[in-house]
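Bench notes, bay 3.
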Amino acid sequence: MSSYLLSQCLVTVAIVLDLCSFQCRQRHWVLRCLCLSTLLTAIHFALLGHWTGALLMALACVRFAVSLVTTRPFWCWVFLLLTLPLTLLSWAGLPSLLSATGSALQTLSAFQRDDKRLRLGMIAGISFWLAHNIVIGSPMAIAMESLFITSNLIGLWRFHRPASFSVFRRKSPTLAPPSE
């Protein structure tokens, strides 16, 4: 099996984990799925020779593991600061800039205690990773990030839609007496 084909197979498994992640309500299940997904995606990028993406996804794996046990701002700063030398060490122009920006946004998200803030921040970060994957030309990684955004939006809607909104029943308007 070629490195390219293996990389696409690994990212396919990562897609399944990403889709599962944001359909979980509990933050710890979201982060566990993301930890495994980012590990597979790091290997995917390494097999393709895209080292900034590989290093930042490996860092993301560790970041998600740490954010499972703590949301202390100290750790958020540690991971934000580690993003810079890893990006500079593996600099490859626009793909490096896009992946570093996505990684920084997802780092800020991972250390949010509230799952809604986690989801919203991840959407922002995913957008930069999607652009990265378009630039490097990885079809399965493009599909992964597209599905990841979709799954995240569905989870956000499922768990955080306004209480007054329901697809299955319509509330009739209530008439209030005129005020004088």
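Next record in the batch:
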Amino acid sequence: MTLRDLMSIRDVRLLLVGQGLSWVGDAFNPIALSVAVVLSGGGAGELGIIFASGVVARLLCTLVGGVWADRVTPHRIMVVADLVRAASVGATAVAFAALGDPPVAVLAGLAAVTSGAGAFFFPAFVSLRPLIVPGEGLQSANAAISFLQSSAQMAGPVLAGVVVAAFGSVPGFAVNALTFAWSAACVARLRARSVPGVTRSRMLTEVREGLGEIRSRDWLWTGLVSAGMFHVASGVFVVLVEVTVVRDLGGAHALGLVTAALGVGGLVGGLVALRVQPRRMLLWAFVSLALFPLFPVAFAWSGGLWTVMALGLVAQAGLLYFDVGWQTAVQQGVPHDRLARVASWDVLISFVALPVGNVLAGPLSGRFATPDLMGGIAAWMLLAGCWPLLVRSVRGLTRGGGAPSATTGGEGAQPSAAIAAS
């Protein structure tokens, strides 16, 4: 499906318009919060408590959000989640405007509400796409969404910095709240296909059903184990990149250039995913993921700033192409009545693995020289991205128009061409 065909679908236009502005708005909250807390006399301790409360809320709510997104029409969950986030961010703005220096407990509670609602939103967002896009257009839709998100992640921090610097943190919070409300209004107008009702059971039982869906498909659990391995290394790498670029390659200016290069790489990856749609999508997704270790290799070889930027661009393009292929595989290869629960497990594994890597960054950097550590990270990422190619169902998964039934799975499943050996 071409981009023009995709944009001719009313619901796709509404979703992209709503989410594009919402993603730009997402950049306002952390910047406004950091500035507001520091200017009101707080510091790293207060910010740490606030951010930690958001992390804990997301951990607690992710699997529950997946269950509810499978129980209820996904776009209804998205509307409620957006309205809750609009209210909590708006309340944060009111707290700073009225109190000047609101209690940390209040800010932490509001951050928990915002993050918890976000944990409900994402699984529903994944589950919604097959309901508004024909099966053959899913990869194009995922690619367009990734391209738009990369664009917003480039523009959002710049706009947020300008607004907060010029007008203060309260207007910054207000902008974020308004973008959540805008997203809710757009999603509320969607005419997503209805799905058959599912029999509800106990929450824990439904969570286990999502895990069982993963375990029944070799390509799926393989991909999630690979993601966990990859994100532990990413957690270490993210910390080292910022320290190394600032210390050795030119300070904040250099870090800004590297960040911009990664943003451009994300745009390139999204564009490539729109144009290049091989039949064996998961095979080529993992091949593209093998490009990412080039980024830590640039530091291992003590490359200059321009080398780091160039390889970072290529690496990010490969990562975005992988992400589009993976999301498409999950959306086409998992029964829709369990899709959100599978997506929530996917999010949880990555969300847990990243901070583990963050914690390991300090001890590892104290024990190993930066080039050696970067080389080790590159090797680990290459292993994490390539070993799934040894699994037959990863190599054999193809683009298709349907999902397997809830009772089929493993390498032998051949559901409506979604999983079939070429």
